[in-house]
Amino acid sequence: MPSTPWRPPSFWKPGFVSKTDIWKDAGEVDTAIARMADDLTALIAERGIQDPLMIGIHTGGVWVADRLHERLGITDPIGHLDISFYRDDFTRIGMHPQVRPSYLPLGVDDRNLILVDDVLQSGRTIRAALNVLFDYGRPASVILATLAERDGRELPIAPDVVGLHAKLEHDEQIKLSGPEPLLMLRGKTPRHAADKPNPSRKSGQDSRTQSDSDPT
Amino acid sequence: MSKQNPQLDAQGNLKHFLTTEGLSRDLLTDILDQAEGFLGVAQQAVKKVPLCRGKVIANLFFETSTRTRTTFELAAKRLSADVLNLNISTSATAKGETLLDTLRNLEAMHVDMFVVRHATSGAAHFIAAHADPHVSVINAGDGRHAHPTQAMLDMFTIRRHKQDFSRLRVAIVGDIMHSRVARSQILALKTLGVPEVRVIAPSTLMPNGIEEAFGVRAYHDLREGVRDVDVIIMLRIQHERMNSSLLPSEHEYFRLFGLTEERLSTAQPDAIVMHPGPINRGVEMDSQVADGPRSVILEQVSNGIAVRMAVMSMCIGTQNLKSQPQGDVDG
């Protein structure tokens, strides 16, 4: 698979966010991923899982999954999931400008999956990702691992393994920047964007990724 | 410019897909990129995505077609839309109903998109101009004018094999004069930056002034025309042309313009051979070429589904944008 080209996060664009800081630097992100790897190892041992299959959600989830995949020493290749065709806001914002093909090198039937994303907020991305997976087959189980989680859940979805817990104001958001180095950025969302969590695609097609318009 | 183009909404999003003419390279590339994503749907156990759930898409075929209608139908179904297939040549118009009355009746059934094939050039534009504002129209071939989804699936197939359009030589062979496919292909190839497009046809099937009008090079000799090309697109020769004064006979056409392995030998070693189908074996090309290693004809059919899914979902996505209040756009 070609590597994902680096794109600046949308809230670096003038006007979108008033202030952006590094919330966790590369070292802290690395430590969090190491901790996640330990927790995952313990969890799969506890559940008696033999050969888990790792699947990352485009784009940030794939970056995290790549690192976890290496740390866990999983031999089966990693899967990439694009949820654009399963988003629940297509009827509001139209086609997503940057769809990448989903790539699942192996069947998911009867496999134990580790689903990896960068930030968990509303839970809508995970809802969509589960729907994609079930259109590929019937997995035996799915474990959810996210690098960071914050408040704002809108669906009954809970992570099994979390690297970082964010305490944020209502008008703040966090986003993973990568693929190298991995940094967690934190920025203030301007008033009108915070009120409207699903901005139209026209507001910045060039560099917008799925987690930009829907921080989940 | 976008305001004048009937295919685009006020923000420049694709609303109708009527022709490859007048669309930007970015937009055509966007269609190809989106299609790349839809290609994966065929790998799923459930070959369906929920994008157009609850939408109604009507296939209006005033002219018969098997492949195009079937792939449009399959594309719509893979997007989870509901599909109406209307074979109008055998129904309402035959009973005397006008095109507009047919249209109004279908609109009353809350159809969201019309896929139109018609023997008259401009029919799809006419329907787009008269349809309800929330309805999208896709041209599935109108007269001698345009067949834009065929052209885009050909572009998609070329890109998957050759990656970069900017260093290609592409030859289109056959009935250039009457071909809506050729027109749409030439316009798309030029927009996507192909530096050399050649058209190869007997002089009776070559439009006058095509070199100046389209910026292509015209050849009347197949052997000369395919020399060093990377892509060869064969066009279908309609049977009715055979019986007109434009061509002497199928046999003679094949002898002069039929593609054989031997004639293919002057093209680039990795050249691909394409055909929109259905093939007339022994007229446009021999079976050795059609079934040979350089033929990508069946791939074109599979790619056609992904490209049509991309165009349909982009147009329906644009309809959705229209319901957004304008003030919401930030940045």
Automatic annotation (TrEMBL), chain A:
Feature: compositional bias, Basic and acidic residues: 203-216
UniProt-annotated stretches for the region Disordered: 177-216
Residue ranges annotated for the Phosphoribosyltransferase domain, each copy included: 32-167
Keywords: Glycosyltransferase, Transferase
Family annotation (CDD domains): PRTases_typeI
Signal peptide: none
GO molecular function, one term: uracil phosphoribosyltransferase activity
Top-rank taxon: Bacteria
EC number: 2.4.2.9
Name of the protein this chain belongs to: Uracil phosphoribosyltransferase
Record lineage: Bacteria, Pseudomonadati, Pseudomonadota, Gammaproteobacteria, Chromatiales
UniProtKB/TrEMBL annotation, chain B:
Reactions it catalyzes: carbamoyl phosphate + L-aspartate = N-carbamoyl-L-aspartate + phosphate + H(+)
Keyword Lyase: no
Annotated residues for binding of carbamoyl phosphate: R67, T68, R117, H147, Q150, G277, P278
EC annotation from Swiss-Prot or TrEMBL: 2.1.3.2
Metabolic or biological pathway: Pyrimidine metabolism; UMP biosynthesis via de novo pathway; (S)-dihydroorotate from bicarbonate: step 2/3
PROSITE patterns in alphabetical order: CARBAMOYLTRANSFERASE (PS00097)
Domain Aspartate/ornithine carbamoyltransferase carbamoyl-P binding residue range list: 15-159
Cellular component, GO, one term: cytosol
MF terms in GO: amino acid binding; aspartate carbamoyltransferase activity
Keyword Ubl conjugation annotated: no
Keywords, in A-Z order: Pyrimidine biosynthesis, Transferase
Any Gene Ontology biological process: 'de novo' UMP biosynthetic process
InterPro entries: Asp/Orn_carbamoyltranf_P-bd, Asp/Orn_carbamoylTrfase, Asp/Orn_carbamoylTrfase_sf, Asp_carbamoyltransf, Asp_carbamoyltransf_Asp/Orn-bd
Binding site for L-aspartate: K95, R180, R236
Domain Aspartate/ornithine carbamoyltransferase Asp/Orn-binding, residue spans: 168-314
Gene3D superfamilies tied to this protein: Aspartate/ornithine carbamoyltransferase
Top class in the EC scheme: transferase
Described function: Catalyzes the condensation of carbamoyl phosphate and aspartate to form carbamoyl aspartate and inorganic phosphate, the committed step in the de novo pyrimidine nucleotide biosynthesis pathway.
Family: Belongs to the aspartate/ornithine carbamoyltransferase superfamily. ATCase family.
Subunit annotation: Heterododecamer (2C3:3R2) of six catalytic PyrB chains organized as two trimers (C3), and six regulatory PyrI chains organized as three dimers (R2).
Protein name: Aspartate carbamoyltransferase
Native source organism of the sequence: Thiorhodococcus drewsii AZ1
Encoding gene (name): pyrB
